[in-house]
Amino acid sequence: MFGQPARPAAEPPAVPRRSRALVITAAVLLVGFLLLTAFASFWTERQWFDSFGFGGVFSTLLWTRVGLFVTSGVVMGAFVALNMYLAYRFRPYFRPASSEQDNLDRYRGAVTPLRGWLLAGVSVVLGLFAGASGAGQWREFTLWRNSVPFGTKDPFFDRDVSYYVFELPWWHYVVDFTMAVAVIGLLAAAVVHYLYGGIRLQVSRDRLSPAAQAQFSALLGLFVLAKGVDYWLDRFDLLNEEGSLITGMNFTDDKAVLPAKNILLGISIICAVLFFLNIWRKTWVLPSVGVALLALSAILLGLIWPGVVQRFQVSPSEPDKEAPYIEKNIAATRAAYGIDDVDVKRYTSAPELDAQLAALDADTSSVPLVDPQLVKQTFEQQQQVRAYYTVADVLDVDRYTLGGQERAMVLGVRELDQEGLAPGDRNWSNLHTVYTHGTGMIAAYANQRPGDNRSQAAGIQWAEGQEDGQSALAEMEGEPYEPRVYFGELSPSYSIVGKASDGPDVELDLPQGEEDDTSAATTYDGDAGVPVGGLFNKLLYAVKFGEPNMLLSSRVNENSKILYDRNPRRMVEKVAPWLTVDADPYPVVVDGRIQWILDGYTVTDQYPQSERESFEDMTDDSLQQAPGFQTLPTDEVNYVRNAVKATVDAYDGTVKLYAWDEEDPILQAWRGAFPDVVQDKDEIPESLMSHLRYPEDLFKAQRFQFARYHVQDPKDWYQNNNRWEVPEDPNDKDNQQPPYRLFLNRQAEGEEEPAEGQVWSLTSVYVPRDKANLAAFVSVNSDANSPDYGKIEALELADERTNGPALVANEIASDEDVRDELFSFDQGGINPRYGNLLTMPVGDGLMYVQPLYAARDSSESSYPILSFVLVSYGGRVGIDTTLRGAIADVLGVEDSETATPTEPEGGEETPSEPAESVNAQVRKLLDQAAAKFEEAGAAQREGDTVGWAEAIADAEALIDEAVELTDE
Fold it and tell me: At what angle do helices 138-145 and 665-673 cross, to 10 degrees?
């Protein structure tokens, strides 16, 4: 009123056409990049499968998922669109005037011109969500389509187990999907009816139009009917329901929950009929009463009544009430985990301390003393040759027939370790075109005996390595094997291989000869790998790995291939995504190639009445690596079979899967879906068969369940008075002791002499729950060529006072002789490391054997040296540089047999250690140092302080000299 007139607000400046063009261009480029990324991921995955000959697996998986996606999406989208259309089609044409309708008029005016687009958009979005959910059910659908009978029926409904494993999960999805479709269709229809006046909330009567009432009645009837089917399926789920006592049907489920499910099923059907009748009756009284009755019954019968039965009928006399159900749970669990035929024998450990040394030495000649967990550094320092090679953290154990004798070996693949390169050398060309592969195997005789296997020697005895005389695996093959390792557990993420037609080799290979400073070069010429010589594949892989050098580098030429996804376990998981793969692939040399062998399991959590448990928890111990790939939403299982043996060629990546348990119904179902993936068992080469073994993860799962399910009487099982458990690892208090592979003398029942001689076995022990004494020794025949392969034998200790691993470890550590040796270690700056504490039946009792390693913590170049062997037998402890000597110490006798000398006489080297070998010189010095430490211990026990000090000084000087040689 009193000031200047207000100026009109300035109009916002118009957006220049150039800016709009830039925004549109940026959006198009972003969408194009996202589409290119998605296509690159899809196309390169398809290329990977084709390169290994498994394109059919990719196609089957793709079209199965696409089919489920389209079917689920179309059903959901069409159903929602139909209900929205019907709600609009039968909208009331005359709407009484009211404030509610006046407010809705504005929305109707805005929506009406776009109603077709809105209907299509809502339907498509909901269809996409439903399609994604449906595509995720490919496993359930595939098993349902290819189901085969188990030949075993459940004890309650008399249905074949295949119904629970193959059919029930799929039908649950179908019913849940139907209920979801009904609910979402109802909500969509309700929104349209409300918008167009079919629903009026602000009136006292006639809130629903006749059309809305009919449509809602039909949809609610469909939902309640589907819920009734769900109640019917829930009856069968009781056989896999986890309870506080067992997995499966129990007394309360049988007497209260099952009748409640039947009653609720009947009420649901009645409610559904009432809703369908309401389409014509136009009254909500009866449907409302039915729904109220269903809700009240669900609370009373589904929640309160089972609690009453459990509290007043079961709890006061639970052992008697639950006994029949526990009995069925025991039988099902033992069958599902394959422990129903374990041979349990009573065993008394009564060692004869006046036994002959020669007899005990013969029984223990194959005992593994090289600990796979401790010798990684030893393998690397003595055999890796270059810093960019390494071996696995925990080495593998296998057996080979050499000179007519089966020998256990600790071995590892010399794989590429790009972290060993100098930081300045880690450029793209080096990482992906030069340092592309590992080379060769490293193997040591596990029993501390050289190739002739006649007598033990101090230190590790090499079977396969870089020095002369260390070629046992190659000699076994009759000719050198292909050493290059392009596919391994530590392989790089991807490598570009293949040289130009007129270009030089650029891939670095292992130099020939220890003193040869020149670098050998090679070129991969295997069949695996995806060609990347063309611009199209270059572009896609550049996008996949985010690396423009693939397009720019001259190292990517017309002959180039790209190798990726090269971990053997990952490869098997991809070509057989329905397998749970064992966490520990192991390498073998067979038919001139290094092959990785893997075990594949078929698992389910739907085996009726079987105890369900986490697969990771069952297989966890101090050596457990990353858990295997799981085929279930969770890792809980209640059935497992070693259905498949797989191999991956370390050079060209060839993947082969062989059926092992051909009777397994789950494997048969998957073979029906993927008919060309798994080969028959009789196609396994004979040379490969000798290296197949009983898998560790399966044995761990079995020993976990057998710890409780060795008890078959329901009342004893309930009382838990004879429950076993796997003991803690004496060297790792927070984890269970792992199983160990060794040769065992198997005896036939009632016979004194071994029935089979020494059998390659996987072994473990049990202790009573929360106790440290030994309860049982368990082993499984691990020789795939034996007719008793997979036979589990448990020796149950008759004497409950037999010491378990923890007590024996304490007994060894507190022994006076052992303390004296460790004292000499401390004086020399040596760190003692205890190896595997092995338990085995020897003679008339149980013998414990443990290697003792030593390493200097003050030197980066130091590595564990196998210095002593500890033995506990008959309550006595022995220590010596060899197992035979330690047994002689236990028996209190002199070892008259001349062992391999620890210090060569006359300056002559053993045949396996050439004079010019640096490793041999280092080993000789360390052996001499170990002898000096032993001399120091003897002087200390005799009270000779001067002799003790001189010996310690000599030992330290020898170790320093060895360290200097290693550094050089």
Answer: 100
Question: Closest Cα partner for 494 from 541, 527, 533?
Answer: 541
Q: For residue 335, what are its two tokens? A: 């069958």
Place of tokens 């230190």: 459
Four-CA torsion 624, 630, 632, 636, nearest 10 degrees: -10
Residue 250's DSSP bridge partners are: none
CB-CB neighbours of 78 under 10 Å: 13
- pLDDT bin (cut points 50, 70, 90) of residue 8 is low
How is residue 583 written in tokens?
Answer: 């966490």
pLDDT grade for 871, boundaries at 50, 70 and 90: very high
Query: Are 485 and 411 contacting, i.e. CB atoms less than 8 angstroms apart?
Result: no
List, for residues 734-753, the tens digit of each pLDDT value.
889 999 999 998 654 444 44
Q: Which pLDDT belongs to residue 681? A: 95
Torsion of the alpha carbons at 699, 705, 709 and 710, rounded to the nearest 10: 30
Amino acid identity, position 789:
Y
The DSSP code for 773 is B
For residues 140 and 175, give the distance between their C-alpha atoms in angstroms, rounded to a whole number: 14
Strand 754-768 relative to strand 724-725, pairing: antiparallel
Reported as a pLDDT band with limits 50, 70 and 90, residue 267 is very high
User: Which tokens sit at 137?
Assistant: 């059910």
Between the alpha carbon of residue 821 and those of residues 247, 487, 509, 835, the distances in Å are 52, 44, 43, 16
DSSP 160: B
Q: So what's the pLDDT on residue 203?
A: 64
Task: Give DSSP secondary structure letters for 192-208.
Answer: HHHHTTSB-SSSSS--B
CA distance 164 to 168: 5
pTM of the model: 0.87
Contacts of the segment 942-947: beta carbons below 8 A, 24+ positions apart: none
323-332, 355-364, 433-442, 826-835: least confident range? 826-835
Dihedral over Cα of 221, 222, 224, 225: its sign = positive
Angle of helix 805-813 relative to helix 816-827, nearest 10 degrees, comes to 60
Q: What is the mean pLDDT of the chain?
A: 86
Identify the pLDDT of residue 628: 53
Nearest to 902 by CA among 924, 876, 887, 871: 924
C-beta contacts of 45-52 below 8 A and 24+ residues apart:
47/530, 47/537, 48/530, 48/564, 48/565, 48/574, 49/574, 49/575, 50/530, 51/528, 51/529, 51/530, 52/528, 52/571, 52/575, 52/653, 52/654, 52/655
Say whether pLDDT at 77 is over 90.
yes
Residue pair 781/759 in contact by the 8 Å Cβ criterion = yes
Question: Among 412, 409, 421, 417, which Cα is nearest to 392's?
Answer: 412
- 437 contacts 484 by C-beta, under 8 angstroms: yes
Band (pLDDT 50/70/90 cuts) for residue 905 is: very low
CA gap 328, 608 in Å, rounded: 10
Neighbours of 319 (CB within 10 A): 13
For 133-190, how does the pLDDT look when each residue is reduced to its tens digit (9 = 90+)? 999 999 999 999 999 999 999 999 999 999 999 999 999 999 999 999 999 999 999 9
Q: What does the alpha-carbon distance between residue 957 and residue 968 come to, in Å, rounded to a whole number?
A: 17
Cβ distance 220 to 185 under 8 Å?
no
Distance CA 854, CA 825 (A): 8
> Max CA-CA distance within the chain?
126
pLDDT on residue 860: 58
If you search the block for the tokens 């040689």, which residue do you land on?
965
